[in-house]
Specification:
This protein has about 400 residues and is an alpha/beta fold. The protein has helices at about 35-45, 70-80, 95-100, 125-135, 155-160, 170-185, 200-210, 225-230, 245-260, 305-315, 335-350, 360-365, 380-390, 395, and strands at about 15, 25, 30, 50-55, 85-90, 110, 140-145, 165-170, 190-195, 215-220, 260-265, 265-270, 285-290, 300-305, 320-325, 350-355, 375. Bound molecules: adenosine-5'-diphosphate and magnesium ion (MG).
Amino acid sequence: MKTIEDLDVTGKRVFVRADLNVPLSDGTITDDGRIRAVAPTIAKLVERGAKVVVASHLGRPKGEPDPQFSLAPVAVRLGEILGRSVSFAADTVGESAKATVAALADGEVTLLENLRFNAGETSKDDAERGAFADELAVLADLYVGDGFGAVHRKHASVYDLPARLPNAVGDLIATEVGVLKRLTEEVERPYVVVLGGSKVSDKVGVIDNLLGKADRILIGGGMAYTFLYALGHEVGLSLLQKDQVDTVLEYLERAKTNGVEFVLPVDVAVSGKFPDTKTHAPVEDFAVVDADAIPADKEGLDIGPKTRELFAEKLADAKTVFWNGPVGVFEHPAFAEGTKAVAQALLDSDAFTVVGGGDSAAAVRILGFDETKFGHISTGGGASLEYLEGKTLPGLAALEG
Ligand code: ADP
Ligand code: MG
């Protein structure tokens, strides 16, 4: 892989595929971590007199323009972080993009509109994706891949475009991959993994690989309920993936064989309905119940106090920790205690701590923790998981050549 230093960027149009997929609430950026993470790469290119064309996806628009997923607010914030003005193209490969890029002087930056406003970006059809990549390639002389959060996607701007331009890996991806190597190749033990979040099926796969690597696996968040169900417990209205029950049972079995300690919640915080994460309206029926006694009409939304203590104990002597996925619906204060406890336990340990996942990283910051106290906060959830699963990541493979 080439790095930015290997490219002669002065006076060249450099396409930077970033991951600026930040959480937005009514057009306001609630966590700008991903923008700050890629800013040093852009600043370096600016310094060296490149014409920088930044591009990203945001959310999941359906292959056509959708104002709620516009990157316009991100251009403003990126400008503030860089301390210079960042122009904004109202489309990706259309008239606006062409004109905005043509107007760039050396050392200037522009941000294109959401790549996913074009169906070619995420298309499964190689030709359709390739056609979009051809159009993007017209806008640049060089390509820098630095959208770590998207490298596991075989998308036009991630996979097809770097094949069309001289390319290099950006500083963010270089750092991220360095950290992940430390988790796979030279891990210091005990190695403890905490998994939570809501995307159960995305995360069950990584366990398969971790069963050969981790010493302890702590399960919280939505995934926990599939495990509890598999063990024969009632989980009420909690998140549940019945099709994963056999897999989960096999994992528990293999953990025993491999001497990997599996730690499930022993108590959970529940409510009869999903909390309002916008208004933070009080949860009238908040209750803590044992993990084997979830009422049929309740949903498990956080780990309980006994589990918080148990998890803290299991993290105390760790030398390496990988944490992906909030262990509760931290967006509502009533269900944020578990996630807070996990974050605190990471800080209290002497371990090299890695936090992966957009929501996990946002949780750490939103809950008021000092992010510099963690070993590394990754900008990519799915990407870091797939790396740990041992999969080939299209966006990294594309930069290899
Ligand atoms: P990440 O982005 O860190 O990879 P995910 O996207 O998988 O994490 O999941 C984050 C979401 O998981 C948060 O919005 C949180 O509210 C939700 N979550 C955590 N625990 C539960 C639970 N028990 N039930 C439903 N959702 C949950
Ligand atoms: Mg997420």
